[in-house]
Every structure is written in C-alpha cells, then in structure tokens.
Amino acid sequence: MTGPPATGPGPAAAGWPGWTCPRRRGRSSLTALAVIDGLAPLTGRIDGELHARARADPRVKVLRTLPGAGEFTALVMLAEIGDISRFGSARKLAAWAGLTPTVRGSDLKVRHGHISKQGSAWLRWAMNQAAQTAKRSPEFAASYAAIAKRRGKKIATIAVARKLLTRAWHLLNEMQATDTNAPLRRP
Asked: Of 108, 142, 162, 164, which has the highest C-beta tally within 10 A?
C-alpha cells in the first residue's frame, strides 16, 4: 500500500501502527480517527452513567441471572419492555418482540413460517445476542442441540432467544408481584 502511515492524533490510530492508507484516503482516515478520539470522553461518560443506572436498578440484577444476559442486555430489555404488566403472558411478550412464528391457515391446513419480526427490533437483537451465549449453557444445550438437529442452527438459536425472553417475563412478573404485595412503609 502507498501513503503515509496511519498515525493520528490519539489512541484510535494506535491500534494500526504499521498500517498505511492510500494517498486518496489518507486525510479522510486521519480526520475520522481524530473524530473518534474526540468522542472518547463522551462515550466514557455515557458508559459510566449506564453502569451507575444498572447498579441502582434491582431488575438488572435479576435479569443478569439469565445465561448470556449481561448489564447492557438487561438494560436494553428493560428499556424496550417497559412495564411488564403490559403483557398478560410470556407468549404475548414474545409475540410483541417478534420471536413467534407466523401462522397461515386455511380450513384444515396450517403452515408455520418464519418469525414475524413485528415489534421491537432492539429487544429481538438483544435476545438473539444473549442466545448466542446461552445455547452453550447446560440449561439450554440439550434443547438447542435437539432443535438444531431437526430444524437447523438459526431456528434453534431463535428458540433459545424466545425461551430466554419467557424466563425474563417470569422473573420480572414475579419481582413486580412481590413488590406490590409488600406493605407500604411510612417514614
């Protein structure tokens, strides 16, 4: 490759010490690296606020008990679901998230298709990412392997994502029920 080495003004360029970019793209790459370096303090502050919010919310602690769910996944789930009492059942939450199969039927024939993908794309993405890890955990490995053998790996991963969301509904619903049954405390 030709062009100057990509040594920019800050740590963004430090990951590419021997990389050289073409002459035509050299300036724009260095400008982009400078912008990334300029955003570092802002992203650091936002990360700190997210960690503080996660530590303060007991629902995050409960959701992190799910295999594959970390702090960020729990925060995305809470932000997208909102009040869990909006969903009468775990099935309704899974349908709202778009993790249920479409059903087409006529008279005696019923055909199940792909997942509906209607609803929250962020929640569906977060559950899919959590399922990538959860499918290797002992709780889900057997069911994942059985579904993957029958239907394929992608469908099995979505099945694990739906199971995770179902467990999340039960955890949040149980937590809300215990909070509402607690006696009111007066100062």
From this structure: 164
The answer to whether 164 and 69 are in contact (CB under 8 A) is yes
Low-confidence ranges of the chain (pLDDT < 50): 1-6, 184-187
Domain total for the chain? 2
In a domain, 92, yes or no: yes
The parent domain of residue 102 ranges over: 58-177
How many Å apart are CA 79 and CA 37, to the nearest integer? 29
Tally Cβ neighbours within 10 Å of residue 181.
Answer: 7
Element (H or E) spanning 111, and its range?
strand 109-115
Strands 109-115, 101-106: pairing is antiparallel
Instruction: Please tell me whether residues 142 and 169 are part of one structural domain.
Output: yes
Radius of gyration of the chain (CA): 23
**Is residue 124 a contact partner of residue 99, using CB atoms and an 8 Å limit?**
yes
CB 81 within 8 A of CB 123: yes
Q: Which of 186, 26, 172 is nearest to 85 (CA)?
A: 172
| CA distances, 8 to each of 13, 17, 44, 121 (Å) | 5, 10, 20, 36
